[in-house]
Design goal:
Number of helices: 14
Number of domains: 3
Number of strands: 3
Strand content: under 5%
Radius of gyration: 26 Å
Structural class: mainly alpha
Shape: elongated
Order of helices and strands: HHHHHHHHHHHHHEEEH
Helix content: 55-70%
Oligomer: single chain
Largest sheet: 3 strands, antiparallel
Length: 414
């Protein structure tokens, strides 16, 4: 899987190299057919090859689709950016006549895309083409138009990444919202890392553009802007992968694929805008990004002791101990134990983390003047029945009001 995703860089390099002969030059505004035609033909050929491969090889064509998907998204994004840049002149009679044959090819492309959408098993891949491509174009355009407001955009990106990490970690809603909005929140939590990849590509482009040599001040500033984005991306990838161990999910693999698509597609857009001598760093960026996220996934899958599957239990135990120390500090200052864990925030804990065993579960807690107990619903792996684990206790807590056994009874089967 990792090697297949990394292999998607090869068609991207060929696409950029061939496209260089057709790239619309800034001082040649009349060359509409060359660039528009190249985009349309390339997109059509990639979709056609994927469809033919699916017909011949069946399910094996999914691997080919993974190789071609980043390039298809980049072509769609570049086409959208091309139309946006020429919106005022594209419908003039002379220009429209020049764009006629690319428009016919584009129409054929759309028919092929509909055919791809109708293929069972490839629907998700085909839906990703317009979603990722248009989102990539829109975000790229916003960054281009930002001007002096780029720092504000960067701040928004950091906030979105923090939210996405929280949503991945806690598996909870930010607001008590209706179901349709909940689904939108889930989609946003998945796509936000892709937006961060675009921001990283824009930072790299800012370094590489302009006359050489690159100043040390510019490099340091770019590093200071990039490191928080990379750390948050790595943390989310590791967290998603850890949840996969706990629930037998595919969140970490999905995030790896998503970031790969955004990374390679952004590298294509960036390379088309850079001088030939500075084009290779764009693809090195995409390659290193895939390796980095794959490493973060491995970090979330294997525990600190090197054993597979220990991360969810280790995270839960560490979080339980942090909460327990806050309970003891509360007792030392107040002379009694908190009646609810919410009393610990924000005075003793800035944030109350959740268990990392079963999504949607909270801590089991009872507290009073002389006693308390803290526990959680526990299971060794996603395939084993759940039980109750008491992390810490003091005194003689009452039996009533303890709902942990009832919660564990809901998870006796995987």
């Amino acid at each position: 899987m990792f090697l297949v995703l990394l292999g998607g860089i090869l068609p991207a390099i060929f696409l950029v190299g061939i496209g260089q002969a057709f790239r619309l030059a800034e001082d040649e505004p009349g060359r509409y057919p060359d660039w528009a035609g190249f985009l349309a033909v390339s997109w059509g050929l990639l979709i056609a090859v994927t469809l033919v491969a699916h017909r011949v090889a069946g399910g094996w064509a999914a691997w080919l689709a993974l190789l071609a998907l980043p390039s298809m998204c980049a072509l769609l994004a570049e086409g959208a950016l091309f139309l946006a840049a020429n919106a005022k002149t594209v419908f003039k009679r002379q220009v429209l006549a020049q764009l006629r044959w690319p428009a016919v090819i584009l129409a054929i492309d759309l028919l092929l895309l509909v055919a791809l959408l109708s293929r069972e098993g490839d629907a998700l891949v085909a839906q990703a083409i317009p979603v990722v491509g248009l989102l990539l174009a829109l975000t790229w355009l916003i960054w281009e138009k930002a001007g002096k407001g780029w720092l504000f955009l960067y701040g928004i990106q950091i906030v979105l990444l923090v939210y996405s990490l929280w949503a991945t970690d806690s598996r909870r809603r930010l607001f008590d919202s209706p179901d349709w909005l909940v689904n939108l929140e889930k989609v946003l939590a998945v796509l936000i890392p892709g937006l961060a990849v675009i921001a990283l590509a824009r930072i790299l482009g800012w370094i590489l553009q302009g006359s050489p040599p690159i100043s040390l001040r510019k490099l340091l500033l770019a590093g200071a802007l990039s490191i928080p984005l990379l750390l948050l991306l790595g943390a989310q990838a590791a967290t998603a992968s850890a949840w996969d161990v706990a629930t037998d999910g595919l969140g970490g693999i999905w995030m790896l694929g998503l970031i790969t698509v955004f990374g390679i597609a952004s590298a294509i857009l960036l390379a088309w805008r850079l001088p030939v001598s500075r084009r290779s760093p764009a693809f090195v960026f995409a390659m290193l990004l895939v390796i980095f996220i794959a490493g973060a996934n491995q970090f979330g899958t294997f525990g600190f002791d090197g054993a597979w599957g220990n991360t969810p239990r280790a995270r839960t135990q560490r979080r339980a101990e942090v909460i327990n120390q806050a309970i003891l500090s509360y007792h030392e200052r107040q002379g009694e134990y908190p009646s609810t864990l919410s009393e610990l925030t924000p005075g003793y804990l800035f944030y109350l983390p959740t268990p990392f065993i079963i999504p949607g579960q909270d801590w089991c807690y009872q507290g009073g003047a002389e006693s308390y107990r803290l526990g959680y619903v526990y299971r060794d792996y996603f395939s084993t029945p759940a039980s109750v684990k008491i992390h810490a206790s003091a005194g003689d807590p009452p039996e009533d009001g303890w709902s942990c056994e009832a919660e564990a009874a809901k998870h006796q089967r995987p």
